Amino acid sequence: MEKIKYRLVFNRKKTLNKEGKALVQVEATLNKRKVYMTTNVYLRPEWWNKDKKLVVNHPQADGLNLMLWQFMLDLQNLEIEMWKRGVTPTLAMIKNYGRTVPDISFKAFGHKIIEESDRSEKTRENLRSTVRMVCKFRPGVDFADITYTFLREFEQFLKEQGKSMNTVAKHLRQLRTIVNEAINHGLIKIDDYPFRKFKIKQEKGHFEWLTPNELKRIESCKVSGKYERIKDAFLFCCYTGLRYSDFVRLRPEWIEKINGKPWLHLFTKKTDTEIRLPLSLLFDGKAIEIINKYSDISSLVHIPGNHDANVMLSEVVKTAKINKRVTWHTARHTCATLLVYQGVPITTVQKILGHSSLRTTQIYSEIMPRTVVKDLKIAAKKQRQ
Q1: Which residues are registered as beta bridge partners of 261?
Q2: In angstroms, rounded to a whole number, what is the distance separating the alpha carbons of residues 48 and 43?
Q3: What distances in angstroms separate CA 283 from CA 190, 277, 287, one per listed residue?
Q4: Do 279 and 197 form a contact (C-beta atoms < 8 A)?
Q5: Dihedral, 344, 345, 351, 352 alpha carbons, nearest 10
Q6: Mean pLDDT in the chain?
Q7: Which pTM does this prediction carry?
Q8: Structure confidence by residue, pLDDT tens digits, 102-141
């Protein structure tokens, strides 16, 4: 790690009194960044030797020089003490000399709260990725460095790294999570919260879903062998909204009888959210019909890994003559979209999908063309009659 470099500078531009005196400062440089610290020493230009960085021609020149050099020595000693304590010195820490210095760096704190949290492994890896990206942007970053300006510059850095707008937003949200933890631990004052006026920009996500007609085409398409199991597994996820990661974990004991009706009860792998699905009520119980084709649900979920399953699914979709890029997650989008436009309350769809935020579920109310909505409403009306 590069050490901080110090030098005395005479700031002629800040002449603060009628006597024409200007401030002597200490310039600290690290990784091409600079901060300036006041020494509270004011001199006339003729009292300062620019080349030797010394006070000259002043009645107390020796004393002033001793005081200035002692000031820089104290900063260097502070830096050494930080290294001894295992803390990587930053310019913000040095500038705050004389104030309370955090005993942990941003990087160390970030890793600490990530490893000690009860978040899922995927979430923790995402947070680790953001910590690495922040440290790549500004090595030795300290909490005091994280200001509104820092966020703007970090956002621009991510864009220059070729990151999409939504990936940039993801990193900024994860940085916000770490900053919030730092506030909770007293490392950042609430008044210094950098995200207060910073707006995280994000593009509206685009995803594929199947219309009722396309879903029927897959249901009726003729495939055999391993492709039939892939088709059934995918349709099961269309009828239940399950992610691939939850589908392949299904066990027979997770299907319970409530008032004589089968319900699927599980905790999702991604968010550890508890969900209960009334299988006989969703899509007229088609999920139950698929389960009954197999000896038990364990046989149904015995499919290849996600990548290979998607490759096989593309063949099923081609057989059904559907011209869309369909992946396993399309099933979840299809389930949510069709339920919303069948008139199922958005809060119920939220519970079926296991979304922690209603805002996540509400995107499904904006993606289907009005013609399809109209057809669904007519079909629902006929069914009620």
Answers
A1: 258
A2: 7
A3: 49, 12, 8
A4: no
A5: 10
A6: 84
A7: 0.53
A8: 456 788 888 888 888 877 777 889 999 999 999 999 887 8
- pLDDT at 100 (0 to 100): 45
Lookup: tokens for 131:
């910590």
**Consecutive H or E run containing 132:** helix 121-137
Strands (E), the chain: 5-15, 22-30, 33-43, 48-49, 54-55, 255-258, 261-267, 274-278
In DSSP terms, which residues pair with 38 in a beta bridge? Answer: 25
- What mean pLDDT comes out for the span 235-245? 94
Residue 280 DSSP code: T
DSSP string across 22-43: EEEEEEEEETTEEEEEEEEEEE
Do residues 102 and 188 lie in contact, with contact meaning Cβ atoms separated by under 8 Å? no
SS3 content of the chain, % helix, strand, coil (to 5): 55, 15, 35
Write the CA distances from 202 to 155, 190, 248, 261, integer angstroms: 12, 25, 32, 42
Q: How far apart are the first and last CA of the chain?
A: 75
